[in-house]
Each structure stands twice: as structure tokens, then as C-alpha cells.
Specification:
alpha/beta, Alkaline Phosphatase, subunit A, two-stranded antiparallel sheet
């Protein structure tokens, strides 16, 4: 019978390659995962899938080839995504990120582009060859009808095993219990990819019957707004172009932090920058708690716009521009529009990147300026961005006159990688800055390379921000400038190994950047240096601008004060529970 014929030589060679790939997959996949239950889970998925395909198709080569290619693809994609973008491949990526945004990122990282092209050729090629060069030989020596019973019995058994493994309450229930954040960092790539299919539902904090249920979350009129708005506040030097409220400019500084918080950064000429130094126009500044590390800028945008932390909503919060932005009931732009502002966003990339254009429309912006229309790109410096801002700002103000303007913009220059060879940088960055020993620790060549690039780019950011301050704060209109770091850079994970000189009270030092708020008018109060969670930045801006806050941002401001700038890490759990009860179950901060 043809079924019993031996395989041709080319099929045997292909089989050896695929079986070798299977061994490599087990060695680099399940056997490297964080816990024994995860190793068992991922190995069960792979083996049960092979058994299922073997009984379904009776083709052993194909039965091994398809899982090796698919699970191997997940493994390789996760390795590369974690290496370059600091997060592994997760299920929502297939919905949200597999689009032209991925190609735009890949052009920045040639290995990613090479991997995409290679996968596009090899994956279908291997599958097609495995099918065509294989033969339905499994159970070939078993007579009918026993063969049919064995075959479908094997299919049923494989499906039962897969069903039990995939059941969140089944024998592998433990792998489904960890959160998305742990999944993003523990490198159990196959397990985390599969279980992330179950972790995409938005979760609102449950209502808590607490002892602080009578705590008021609204402010009296005398305290809302608590800040004095121009022109009434202006005493020493009245501004010529008086308007009811100041223009507000918020700048998200990509991957930016104050380098003096690193214990090794003791060289004043490269470590100290005006960008982080308060002056006579500073009203509030300090350490900023952010919610992501090494990437995920869009979640910092979400926090500034909404006054919420994406981590509040469970694992699905990581995809805020897609699934949270359309559901928020309150936002900083909407509050400002109620006070008469025109609100615009200047985005340094394509508006299609991470759903930005749609997200900003959901946040309530009147206009969205696509950076590519103005020649901005990944390589654009802060000065390039601020020149575009100057054009747009002058045009907008000429059209709207004394109507106040709110501008949100993002820099991009500090985005990784930070790998330009030092010899190509200008002095003093053209050689390792921290080759000697500092506080008992010597930075290796890799960290010197990345830190040198970071500090050199920071010089440009510092100069550009000085120019922006001059335009806004030396201008004839009342103005408020708020800038902050969205997260720390990754340096391919090496940033975590650098000792940081931060107080223990701030929590995880890897989630700390900076914020700075300045005005060219004296508000009613000056907060000075204070730690703050990024979720409280909107109410701080409204307070310092003298803009009346809606019910949500009144509560946001009170939470900022009652928990001393901390939010989810507030040690006053009864107050945090009361706050969540109020904003989610009375105000409906997130609607359907």
C-alpha cells in the first residue's frame, strides 16, 4: 500500500531538521520558563498540539512542523520584542500592533525587520513542504475500523488535555493567576502569550464598603480654583495681552529623567541640567511616579489626559489608547474646553501610531497635528519639534486671539536605541564618561555607551527647553509650561542595574522620573518640591492655571493632597478605596 511506502530522502532530511527544531523549542522555551508549573503548562500545550495534529492528519512530520513553527515564532518574537521594546509578545499585540506601526518600528531596528522578512518566507515555506513531503503513515499498519477508533480516540484525548490545560480553573490554574505586569517581565514567553488571551478584559476596581464612605470628594467654591488666574494676579509686571486664563503647554519628554538621581552621575558638566533645576518661575517640581518602565509612552499620555493609572484596570490597561480612551468620562482637555480653551495636540510621528489620532480625539482635543506633515520623524530633535510648535502656536494664536490655548506635544529624540558609537559623538561624550569607579561600582562598556548617548541628547533637550521657556514665559501672554519624563530608558534592560540615589519612600526607583511646572505669573500658592504620581498632573495644572475643576478633577486634587502625591501606592488604603468608590461608582469615570 502507498501508505506503507518509506519516506523519500528529502522528507527524512526535513524530518530531522524539524525534530531538531522541536528539541531546541523545548530547550529554549518550556525548560527556561520561570516556574515548574509554567514549564509543564507550555510543554503540555506543545506536545498535546502535536498529538492532536498527528491523529488528525496522520502526518508525523507535519504534526511536529506546525507547532514548532508557531510556538517557535511566538518564542522568537517574544525574545526580540523584549530585547528591543522591553515587553514580550502578548495576545493583544495581534489585534493592536500587527499593522504598519510594526513596520515603522522595525525600520528603526534592522534585526526586527530581518526577522519579519525571514518569518514571512520560512513559516509558510516550512509548513507547505512538511505537508507535501509527508505521508499519512500514522496507524498505517492498523486495520479498519480499529484505525478509525484509535485515530478519533487520540484526537479526543488530545482535545481533552488541551481543554484542561486551557481552563483557568483546571490543573494549571496557577499560571493564569499572575498579572500582566509580571507576565511582561518574567520571560515565561510561551505561557505568558497564551494566558494573556484571558487577561484582556478591562477591570474596574470593586466597590469597597469602607469606613471612609462619608469622606467628601468635592471642594468648596473658594478652593476651586485655589489658584489666582491672570490678569487679576499680575501685580509686578502686567502682561499686555491679558486673557482670562493662561496658555498651557504640556511637553512629554520621551525617556527622560534627571541623571543626578544615578549614584555614578557626579560630573556637573554633563549631569546637571537647567531642565531639572527650579528657578523663580517654578511653581511645582519634583520626583514623578510613572506607571511603565523602558517603554509604553502611550500609557503616560493616558495618565496625563485622564488623571487615571492604566494599571487600575487590570492587564488590559496596557492598551489604553485603544480600549480605555473611548470610555473615559473626564479628561484634562475636556475640562479646559469647558473653561473656554482651544485644545490641540502636536504628535511627532504618524497619527496612526498606537492609535494616537483616534485616542486624542477621544481625549477631547479640537485639533491633531501629525508630525509627519511637518517633517518630524524618529530622528527629530527637541529643537525640531519646538520649531514646529512655534509655527503652529503663532498660527493658532493669530486665529483665536485672546482665547486661551492648550497644547500637548511629545518629544522623541531620547527614544532608544542609545547606541551611536561614542567616537561619533561630540566632546566630552566621545569617550566613556564613567570608566573610573564611582561609589564602588564601575560601569561597563555597554552602560557607558548608552549613558553617553543619553547625556549627549539631553544637552539638546536642555537647550531646546530653554528656548521654549523664553518664547512662552517671556511672551506677552500669561503662560504655564509643564514638562515631565514619561518613563526611564531601558538601555536594553541595563538601566535597572544602575544604582539610583532616591529616597526609599518613593517606592520602586525604576518608575521615577521628574516633573516641572513654571508660569510667568504668580499663582495663589506655590507647591515647591514635592513627589507626585503622574495621575495627579491634570489637577495640578488646573490648579496652577486657575481653571475651575469638574467633579472628577476636584476629587483628583483632593486625593493628591490626602495621599501626599501617591496614588495606587498610597499607604492610606481606606482613602484610596473611598476615592475609587467615588470616581467609579458615583461619577462613572469609565463608561461602557
Amino acid at each position: 500500500m502507498p501508505e506503507r511506502a518509506s519516506l523519500p530522502r528529502r522528507s527524512k532530511i526535513l524530518a530531522l531538521i524539524i525534530f531538531a527544531g522541536f528539541v531546541v523549542l523545548l530547550a529554549l522555551g518550556p525548560l527556561t520558563e520561570a516556574t515548574w508549573i509554567e514549564r509543564g503548562f507550555s510543554a503540555t500545550l506543545i506536545v498535546a498540539t502535536i498529538v492532536l495534529l498527528a491523529f488528525l492528519t496522520r502526518r508525523l512530520i507535519f504534526a511536529f512542523a506546525l507547532p514548532v513553527v508557531l510556538f517557535g515564532g511566538v518564542l522568537i518574537s517574544s525574545y526580540m520584542k523584549f530585547h528591543y521594546l522591553t515587553t514580550p509578545l502578548l495576545a493583544p499585540d495581534l489585534v493592536y500592533f500587527v499593522n504598519r506601526d510594526l513596520l515603522e518600528v522595525a525600520t528603526r531596528y534592522p534585526p526586527i525587520m530581518i526577522a519579519i522578512i525571514t518569518a514571512a518566507i520560512l513559516i509558510p515555506g516550512i509548513i507547505v513542504l512538511a505537508w507535501r513531503w509527508d505521508r499519512p503513515m500514522l496507524l498505517a499498519r492498523v486495520r479498519m475500523p480499529q484505525r478509525r477508533w484509535l485515530r478519533w480516540g487520540g484526537v479526543a484525548l488530545a482535545l481533552v488535555v488541551l481543554g484542561l490545560a486551557a481552563w483557568p480553573r483546571g490543573p494549571f490554574a496557577g499560571v493564569f493567576e499572575k498579572g500582566m505586569w509580571q507576565a511582561m517581565n518574567d520571560k515565561s514567553y510561551i505561557t505568558d502569550f497564551y494566558t494573556s488571551f484571558y487577561q484582556t478584559q478591562i477591570i474596574i476596581p470593586p466597590f469597597v464598603k469602607d469606613e471612609e464612605s462619608a469622606l467628601l470628594w468635592t471642594q468648596p467654591d473658594a478652593e476651586n480654583p485655589p489658584a489666582c488666574a491672570p490678569p487679576a494676579c499680575i501685580a509686578a509686571k502686567p502682561l499686555k495681552e491679558a486673557q482670562e486664563h493662561p496658555d498651557i503647554v504640556a511637553v512629554l519628554e520621551e525617556s527622560t529623567y534627571d541623571p543626578t538621581m544615578l549614584k555614578v552621575c557626579k560630573l556637573p558638566e554633563v549631569c546637571k541640567r537647567k531642565l531639572f533645576a527650579p528657578d523663580g518661575r517654578t511653581r511645582a517640581h519634583g520626583l514623578l511616579t510613572v506607571h511603565v518602565w523602558g517603554g509604553g509612552t502611550w500609557t503616560s499620555e493616558f495618565a496625563l489626559m485622564s488623571g487615571l493609572d492604566h494599571l487600575t484596570f487590570g492587564d488590559a490597561g496596557l492598551y489604553a489608547p485603544y480600549n480605555l480612551a473611548p470610555r473615559i468620562s473626564n479628561s484634562l482637555p475636556r475640562n479646559l474646553k469647558e473653561a473656554g480653551y482651544r485644545t490641540i495636540a502636536i504628535y511627532p510621528m504618524s497619527g496612526n501610531f498606537i492609535n494616537a489620532r483616534n485616542a486624542y480625539q477621544n481625549y477631547g482635543f479640537d485639533a491633531f497635528y501629525d508630525g509627519q506633515d511637518y517633517g518630524l520623524s524618529w530622528e527629530s530633535s527637541d529643537s525640531d519639534l519646538f520649531q514646529v510648535f512655534s509655527q503652529i502656536y503663532d498660527k493658532e494664536k493669530a486665529q483665536i486671539g485672546k482665547q486661551p490655548l492648550f497644547v500637548m506635544m511629545l518629544t522623541l529624540r531620547q527614544h532608544g536605541p542609545h547606541m551611536t558609537p561614542l567616537k561619533k559623538l561630540p566632546p566630552p561624550y566621545d569617550k566613556p564618561l564613567f570608566a573610573g569607579k564611582f561609589v564602588g561600582k564601575q560601569l561597563d562598556e555597554w552602560l557607558n555607551l548608552n549613558l553617553g548617548n543619553y547625556l549627549q541628547r539631553l544637552t539638546g533637550s536642555d537647550i531646546a527647553m530653554t528656548g521654549l521657556e523664553k518664547k512662552l514665559l517671556d511672551g506677552e501672554r500669561p503662560a504655564l509650561l509643564f514638562h515631565f519624563g514619561d518613563h526611564q530608558p531601558s538601555f536594553d534592560g541595563a538601566m535597572r542595574s544602575v544604582d539610583k540615589n532616591l529616597p526609599a519612600s518613593v517606592g520602586d526607583p525604576n518608575f521615577i522620573t521628574y516633573y516641572m511646572l513654571k508660569t510667568n505669573y504668580p499663582p495663589a500658592r506655590k507647591l515647591g518640591e514635592r513627589e507626585m504620581d503622574l495621575s495627579f498632573a491634570p489637577s495640578l495644572i488646573l490648579d496652577m492655571a486657575g481653571v475651575k475643576k469638574d467633579a472628577f478633577f476636584q476629587a483628583n486634587a483632593l486625593m493628591r493632597e490626602r495621599c501626599d502625591g501617591f496614588y495606587l501606592n498610597c499607604d492610606k488604603k481606606d482613602i484610596l478605596d473611598s476615592y475609587h468608590n467615588y470616581i467609579f461608582y458615583q461619577l462613572g469615570a469609565l463608561h461602557e
